[in-house]
């Protein structure tokens, strides 16, 4: 069976999409129906899923996360496939949306949430994220030299410009759109620079934002254990990302199920 390692944050883990992975850390929010599991099931791959909600590029490369080792330590050089969805927490993408929806008009004036909603602060974070993503790509290529390495960018969370995003103020929605667009751009550039591939989930999901007829992501709401987290993929979104990855992988080789 072919080894597949999935790295990334909650946008790959799928918190709130039931059922959770038996035996996985509760804080990881790892769903048994996240895109890594769907891809692995479709191709009969030996999955090692170390995705973890709240992860940053530092948690992939060097930092422990709530007792779990850096994600890259899951790689042993025998992989044929590695997927990576990371960077959003580095630039405060979902955190800024969560802050705005939870704290409303108070968000810009509270110390922590105010920093998340500050455009200049987000721009400084964006200035550094491509270098961090390149470091992830290079490290994965080094540790898994025989693998196809796929960066998978983030599903769309905002409707098109000029369209109201529920109760979010327009300036917050515009900031989120900018952060998302820049994160997509930097992820693609980092993939190209490190010999990795890019799966453009953001581009494929433009018409599947939370206010669309067929949403692949969830908008604002309460954090409840029996449903997908706010500002995260739903089950349809995870299935769509899995389909994108499977399409990019192409038809399996005749001996890939041996």
From TrEMBL:
<dbReference type="GO" id="GO:0016787">
    <property type="term" value="F:hydrolase activity"/>
</dbReference>
<dbReference type="InterPro" id="IPR037460">
    <property type="entry name" value="SEST-like"/>
</dbReference>
<dbReference type="InterPro" id="IPR036514">
    <property type="entry name" value="SGNH_hydro_sf"/>
</dbReference>
<keyword id="KW-0378">Hydrolase</keyword>
<dbReference type="InterPro" id="IPR013830">
    <property type="entry name" value="SGNH_hydro"/>
</dbReference>
<dbReference type="Pfam" id="PF13472">
    <property type="entry name" value="Lipase_GDSL_2"/>
</dbReference>
<protein>
    <submittedName>
        <fullName>SGNH/GDSL hydrolase family protein</fullName>
        <ecNumber>3.1.-.-</ecNumber>
    </submittedName>
</protein>
<feature type="domain" description="SGNH hydrolase-type esterase">
    <location>
        <begin position="6"/>
        <end position="240"/>
    </location>
</feature>
